[in-house]
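protein under study:
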Amino acid sequence: MLFWRTRSFQLCFYLHCIILIIGVYTSSRSLILGTVVSIFFIASLFEQKIKLVGALVTLSLLSFLFFLKFDSSLGRIFIYKISFEILKDNWLFGVGPGNLKRIFPSYQAEYFSHGSFTEKEFLLADNTFYVFNEYYTLFLEFGILSIPILGVLMYSIIKRSKSILTSNASFLKLLVVSLMIMMLVYSCFNISFSAFPILYLFFLVLFIFLMTCNVKQSSLYFLSSNCCILIVYICFQIEQHSISRISNYYKSGVDLDYNLYLKNCLFLFDSNKIKCLNTQTEYYRNKEMWEEAKTAATQLAAKYPSNTNLMNLGLILEKAAEIDQAEYYLKYAINVVPNRLITRYELFKFYKRIGKKHDAKKIGEEMLKIKIKIQSNLSDFIIFDVKNQINKL
């Protein structure tokens, strides 16, 4: 019996078609590529001639997807350019697990502070915390020791997949192998594990099943393990709902002792801690509790150093009478994402407030010369106001 006539392969193929439609609908190039490679990988295990066809289709698709979103592709290349500087400084031991998202903005800020960048790079720059390649991320975070570990892992997965997939392989085996290959390919071109750590558990489930799927209880193991993952995900959602509810109450003007709620917030997941710190910063800032606001804003900027968080920290430090530090973080915010007018505008107003008219005029003249990435009512107002204010300096 030809493998593509088996019910197991047909079910797997239909599932891939559904995933492919989702990839096209969401414009996820990584998902599209991962789905196509996955189905060709499985088919090539049964029919050797398909390997060449699969390779040609994959290369053609990769080229097409690269030019499909050309600016996005150039943005990824720029990210690799910045991350290579991190690699040069930390190639042996890496920057440490989970630290890339905290370190990358500082390297991007340093790159733009030197002034030797192109206009395209200036416009492409954004708040970046991932390099959109999980294997490269592991290399950056764990250093050169991650290479042999990844090599052994890949070899084990491919070798085991070839040994368990026979012409009468069950749908569950095909499903596990296809999902594994799909995730591996997807992770070459997009964020997965670093942004959603719960996927580590799912990958571990797939890997263990792949290595031990000859046992009779494999199906039960697969279902029970995914139930455990579901429990972890539910805990995350409950935690997220808790901080979202507090934040929504505050924004809606509900009268509560937010200081008590926010101080007693304990979170297992880092993303929810960031949301809590964001609400804390906003609450203390509006209450003019500058020491508490400074503490919360400093922690927030350390965990999530976006240009907005760094800018807000600078403005809070100004209120706390730490002028030099305020200037440092406002400049830092500009260099992290130099194409944002709002950060330059805040530094312009900061210089005016502290009496540095020459510096205010200089930053104002720079704002009038730079190319605006996305024109909006806010950008139009900023340019209009800066033009008027410069004439008075």
